[in-house]
Design a protein that fits this description.
The structure is a homotetramer.
Chain A: E1 8-18, H1 21-31, E2 35-40, E3 43-47, E4 57-61, E5 66-74, H2 77-90, E6 93-97, E7 106-110, E8 116-120, E9 152-160, H3 163-173, E10 177-183, E11 189-195, E12 203-207, E13 216-222, H4 226-238, E14 242-249, E15 256-261, E16 267-272, E17 286-289, H5 290-294, H6 306-309
Parallel strand pairs in A: 1-4, 5-8, 9-12, 10-17, 13-16
Antiparallel strand pairs in A: 1-5, 2-3, 3-4, 6-7, 7-8, 9-13, 10-11, 11-12, 14-15, 15-16
C-alpha cells in the first residue's frame, strides 16, 4: 500500500457565477456575512473572517449560474510540481495561468465531468486593514458578527454524471482520500466524499440525474457552533432567503447543516462538524447503501426532492 | 525551506498515573464519560466515544501521579522508519517495545525534560461490541451521553524546564510545527504549542517554575460544542469535582476551556475549538509577549495562580 | 373588560397511561431522564430535576395509552375556592378527591371533550434525599445529566373534537388566556394555545380529526438550551426511540421542538422557548390562517402527516 | 397568609443617564443591538426586538450617569388604582405624571434609598414599521441580528444603603415576592432578589458600601441561549467594550451572565436563565450566607472587586 499523499494542503477557493450579481453580492456580504477583500473586472473577492488567504470565494458576474473554477493549495512548491506531473500524465491538464488578486501562478486542469480546477502554492495572505484587525492576534480578521458570519470555507459539492470516474480522478490527481460514499443498488456510486487533510471532507460529488455537465451543487462555510446554524436560519428567514432544508444533522459525515439558495439560485450551506476529524491515516471509507440512505438524515428528516434535482446552472430537465 | 513533514499522523494516547486509582477510574468513566475498553496489569484502557483506536488514555495505578508516556501514531510504516532514524540520530532514542493492548510495536524516546514518548504505526482499531455500536456507522462507538462524554482525545500539556529546547526537539523529532508561543521578557519561551496535523495543537509545553522534571500539566478531550463545556461544568459541580478555572475562552488558540483536577490531582480539561484549524502549510507562529499574556484570557479572565504552580507529580516547591 | 385572573398558578402534573409499562418507565427514566420519586398501586411518580413538586408525571399501568388526568395548582386556597365555584356553576364539575402521593385534596372536573382535570392547592414539595441534593441550594434536585434530563414540566397538548368549545371552557374554568390560535378556512379553530401565567402556553388543544374523545397529543418538558434538544436527538437515535419530527422551530409560539413516541406510543416532546414569555397582561391572541400554517414550521419544515393523525389512545380511523 | 398579589404585571422600562450620550447610544444600538423607536428632548427610546412595548430603555443625556427612573406596568387599571392607594398609604408617593412617548399616565413614587419608580397601565404597543416587521407574526419586531441583539428587557439591579428596608418596601409597594437573598454575618441583607411574576427576578438590590444614594448597579436584557452570551463576549471584545466579568453562571438564581460597562460607565449585563421560572405561588426565599457567597459563582469564579464597588453615578469613595 502506497503512503498517503500530503501534497495538497487544502481547498483554497471557489469561483461562483451569478446572473443577478448585485443581489448575490448583497446576500454573501450582508446576510451570509462574508467580507469583500477586493474587486477586479467582473469579480468580487470574498472571505470569511478567519480565512487566512485573501479570498475563498470569487463571485463573478456571468450570463448563468454555477461554478467557474475550484482552487486547491499545494503544501509546498515541490508538492505542486509533483502533482502537476501526475495530472499532466493523466491527460487532463489545461496549463498554467498567472493567478488573480488572490494567489500566484496556478496549474489548471479538469475533472472527467468538465469542472475546472487549479492548483497553486504561491498565495496572497489576507492582511487586515486597521478597522478589520481582531483584538486577538491569532485570528485573520475581526469577528464582525454581521449576518451569519461563518469562520472559514469548509467544502464544496459538485455534480457529475459518473461519480465512480470522479473517485478515480480525485484520488489520483489530488491524492484525496475517500472518507464516505453511497453505493447504489445498481452498482453505481451515488455520492462520494473526499479529503486531502484532516477535515472529514473538502469536496463531495453526487450524481447528476439531469444529464448536465460540470454543474454545481453547493458551497459551504463552517461556523463554530451548531447554535450559529440555528441563528443563521432566523437570519435567512427574516431576510426572505429561500431555506431549502435543515437545520438537521446529516447521517453521512454527521455534519449539522442548513441549505439555502442565494438570489441567483446557487445552493449555499452553513454547517458545523463539531470536533469530528479524520485523524486515522488509513481510514477505511464508510459505504452507505441505497436502503440506508432512504432512512433519511440522522434524526429521520427525509431528503427533500430538490436536493436531488436542483443544481446550477439549471438544465432543461429541471422543469 | 524544507517541505513540511507529515510523517506523524496524530497524537495517539497518553498514559496517566494515579495514586488513588479507583477514584480516578470512577472520575474518568462515570463523570468524564470515557469508556473502558480493556484492562491489563495495573492499567485500564479508556477511550472517548469517537476515538477510532482501542484507547487514548491508559490509566495506571502508581505510587504517584503524572504522565507515564505519550504515544503518537505515524502516517505509515515508511514514515515511522524515517522518524526513528531521525530520532536515533538526535541521540534521544530509547528503543523498540512490543506495544500493549492498544497498539503494536513502538519506538520509545525521551524529550529533553525526560518525558517518555513512543511512536507507532501498527494499531488496534476499536471494534464496538454490539451494545456499544452506534446507530450511525461513521462513529466509532455510540454516543452514550454519560457524564461529560467528549468525542475524542484532543491534546496534552507538559511542563519543561527549558521550553526553547523542547521547541527544537519537537520540530526535529516529530516534525511538529509551532503554531503559537509565549516569549517572556527575559527572552525565554514561556509556552509553546505544537501540531503535526491540521489541529491547532496536539501538544503544548509550558515552563516548569518548580524545578521538577518530566512533569504533567493537563490532558484534554474535545467536545463538539461550547455548550458541552458549560454542561460539563454543572456535571463537575454536582459531582464535587474541583473546578480550577473556566469555562472561558483562551486568548492563545482561542479554545473554549474548563479545567478540573481528577481525584488524584492530575489536571484534566474539556475543550472546544469551534471550526478553527491550521490549514495553511506555511503558517507563521503567533508570538505572544509577556505583556499581552498579562491581560488574561480572551474575555479578560485572569489566569489563576495554580495554573502556573500545580503540576503532577507534585514537587516540594508546591508547598 | 374584566381583570385577568391569576387564580391558577401553573400546570402541575399529567397522568399518562401505558400498556407496556416497564418499557415506558425505562424510557422516561433512563432515556428521557426523569427521576422516580415514588410508586403506589399501578403508578410510578416521576419528576424533572427542577420541578419543585413531588411529581409532574404520573405514569400508570393501563390497558391502553393516553392521558389519565391533568392537574393544575391554584395560587392559594381562596383562589381554589373561587375556581371551584365557577366550575361547579359551569356544570362540568365532578367533585373532590383526596389526592395521591403528590398532592392534597383536589377538585376534579372535565372539559367538553371528556378529559379529566383536577385543581388543587395543597401539594407535596419535593425534598431531595441526600444523594439527590444539588450543590446549588436554589435547585430542587441535582442536575444528574442522565439521558435528556429536562429541567421542568412545560406543557401538554390534548386533542378535542371542538376546539372552539374548549376555548370557551378553558378561559372560563381556569381563567386561561389564549395566546395563539389557528383559524381554519371553514371557520373552525384548528388549534388553540392557552396559558395561566407568563409561560407562552401550558396547554394546547388541536382538532381531533379521528372522531375520538378525550385523547392525548403530547406532553413536553423544557430543557434550558436548544443544544439540549439537539443532544436529545442523538440520545433518542442511539436508543432506538422513534423520532417523529424535529428538531426544528415552531412558527406558532417559536418553540424549538423535537417529538418522539415513547414505547407505548404516547407522543413526548423536548422543547426550548428561549427567553420568550408573555408579560403583557392584555396580550391579544395571535391568529394563524390555514394558508399561513401550510407554509410549514418557522424555517420551512412541512408538518409531518402523523402529527395530525396520531393520538393516544389510537382509534380505528388511525388505520 | 395573604394571597399573593398579581397587581403588577412586569418591569416595563428603565431610564438611564449618560454623560457621554452619543457614545452610549452607539453602544446600545450598534453593539448591544437595541433599536431606536423614538427620540424626544434629551432622550432616545430604545427596545429589544421582542419587547412588546414602545421602549424598555430610555437613554437620557445628563450631567452624570445612573438611573433616572424605573417603570413597572400594572396588570389592569383596577390593579393600578389598588397599588397607588397602597403606595400613598406608605407615604412614599410622589404623584401622577402624564407619561412620555412610551406610555400613558403613571404614578411616581420613591424607594427608601431615593430611586424613582413609576407605575402605569396605559401603554404604547410597539408597531413595527414595514422594514422591521418579522416574518413571524408572534414576534414584536424582526430579529435583526445586529450586535448582541437580546430578545427582551430582563431585570435591573439597584444599590441601596439598607437592603432590609428595601425588602419591606418592595413587597408592600409592588407586592413583589422575594425569591433569593444574601444574609450577611452582621445580620444585614447584602442582597435581595424580587419578582412580581414568574420570572426568577425582575429587580435586585445590593448593599451600597460607598455611602451613596439612589445609585444604579446594572440593567440586563435576556438572550435566548447561553451561546448568545458567549457570542456577545466576542462582540464586546472586538468592539473594545470593557468586559468586567463573565461569562459564567451565577450561584444566586443560576443565571448565565456577562457584565460590561457601557462607555459612560453604567454596568450592563447580558444573561440567559434557561428554562428556570418561579411557578410555585408560595415559593420560600432561598437565603445565602456570607460563607456560601464567598465560594464565588456557581463554577467557582471569584466575584470581582469592582462588582462590589462600582456603581453609577460614581461617588468619592470609588476613588
Amino acid at each position: 500500500m502506497a503512503e498517503p499523499s500530503y501534497d495538497v494542503a487544502h481547498l483554497g477557493h471557489v469561483e461562483l457565477y451569478s446572473d443577478c450579481f448585485e443581489e448575490s453580492l448583497d446576500f454573501f456580504t450582508r446576510i451570509y456575512g462574508l467580507t469583500e477583500s477586493g474587486r477586479e473586472g467582473d469579480s468580487v473577492y470574498l472571505r470569511a473572517f478567519d480565512d487566512y488567504e485573501f479570498h475563498t470565494l470569487k463571485l463573478t458576474r456571468h450570463h448563468t449560474t454555477g461554478v467557474g473554477h475550484v482552487g486547491y493549495r499545494a503544501a509546498s512548491p515541490e508538492a505542486l510540481a509533483r502533482r502537476v506531473e501526475i495530472i499532466e500524465g493523466m491527460g487532463c491538464g489545461i496549463g498554467w495561468v498567472d493567478g488573480d488578486m488572490g494567489h500566484g501562478r496556478a496549474y489548471q486542469f479538469q475533472d472527467p465531468d468538465g469542472h475546472i480546477f487549479e492548483l497553486y502554492f504561491d498565495t496572497v495572505d489576507y492582511i487586515a486593514p486597521e478597522k478589520e484587525r481582531s483584538a486577538l492576534k491569532n485570528i485573520a480578521q475581526r469577528y464582525h458578527g454581521r449576518g451569519v458570519s461563518p469562520r472559514r470555507l469548509d467544502h464544496l459539492n459538485l455534480l457529475a454524471a459518473d461519480v465512480g470516474a470522479i473517485r478515480d480522478f480525485m484520488t489520483k490527481a489530488l491524492g484525496s482520500r475517500v472518507t464516505e460514499q453511497i453505493l447504489l443498488d445498481n452498482g453505481r456510486l451515488g455520492g462520494c466524499w473526499f479529503t486531502v487533510n484532516n477535515k472529514t471532507y473538502d469536496i463531495a460529488y453526487t450524481e447528476d440525474h439531469g444529464g448536465g455537465h460540470a454543474r454545481f451543487h453547493h458551497v459551504t462555510y463552517a461556523v463554530d457552533q451548531r447554535e450559529d446554524v440555528l441563528r443563521a436560519a432566523d437570519i435567512f428567514l427574516e431576510n426572505g432567503v429561500h431555506i431549502e432544508t435543515g437545520p438537521h444533522k446529516h447521517a453521512v459525515q454527521g455534519t449539522f447543516f442548513l441549505y439555502v439558495w442565494e438570489p441567483a439560485g446557487n445552493r449555499v450551506e452553513v454547517a458545523n462538524s463539531g470536533a469530528r476529524l479524520i485523524l486515522n491515516p488509513d481510514w477505511k471509507p464508510i459505504t452507505w447503501t441505497e436502503t440506508e440512505r432512504k432512512k433519511g438524515q440522522a434524526w429521520g428528516l427525509k431528503t427533500i426532492d430538490t436536493f436531488h434535482t436542483h443544481g446550477t446552472p439549471p438544465i432543461a430537465t429541471d422543469h
